[in-house]
Specification:
16 strands; Jelly Rolls; 7-stranded antiparallel beta sheet; mainly beta; 47% strand
Length: 201
């Protein structure tokens, strides 16, 4: 519950930090192509893949590499792709102090963007992105700091800016780099993702 502060006749609303809505970090089972619902560790999440490259994503892992995580890899794709999760409990409110965190590693010119599906069926993609890294690293998106563009989810390409979209009922949350991959030198990798917001259930 928020707290109202009265200062010189002005009401200020102090928002609490959002709670964890979901986390996904993939099942620790053998690598497989393509990735399927079987690889999703969180039983409350429904995996969705989109775009002409969506059926070429791999759930990857290498036993011979120390501490290698179980992760999603785009190196086999030859066209744009997108991945999203739908929570079985319903939408999430990503207004206020909501945020999304993940651990990823991109190579080449790939930059991983956050995507959301709104309750009216429209899709948005973040202007912010997570780019090249030689090692796994965490990245955090503060939702209220993002500028959003329209996303054509079938072709997976960005459109025009959307001013002040209503993020109070987001039904799917995911990511894309808007590109096809080219094996390890040119690809995106996502180890885990966490979404912090307010459940609408």
């Amino acid at each position: 519950m928020g707290v109202f502060l009265i200062c010189s006749g002005i009401s200020l609303y102090a928002q609490h930090e959002p709670s964890l809505f979901f986390r996904e970090d993939w099942k620790e089972i053998p690598a497989e192509f393509p990735v399927t619902q079987e690889h999703v560790a969180n039983e409350n999440l429904i995996l969705k893949t989109y775009g002409p490259g969506g059926d070429s994503l791999k759930k990857s892992h290498h036993d011979h590499i120390p501490n290698d995580p179980y992760y999603l890899w785009s190196g086999n794709t030859n066209a744009p792709w997108a991945v999203a999760f739908e929570h079985q409990s319903g939408p999430v409110d990503l207004s206020g102090n909501a945020k999304v965190k993940w651990q990823s590693r991109q190579s080449g010119f790939h930059r991983l963007h956050l995507i959301v599906k709104l309750s009216d069926g429209s899709w948005l993609i973040s202007d912010q992105s997570d780019g090249y890294a030689s090692q796994w690293r965490e990245h955090e998106f503060i939702i209220k700091d993002i500028r959003w563009r329209k996303l054509n989810i079938e072709a997976v390409h960005e459109g025009g800016l959307v001013e002040d979209p209503d993020l109070s009922r987001v039904v799917e949350i995911g990511f894309t780099d808007l590109r096809g991959g080219n094996s390890s030198p040119s690809s995106s990798r996502l180890d885990w993702i966490e979404v912090y917001g307010k459940s609408m259930n």
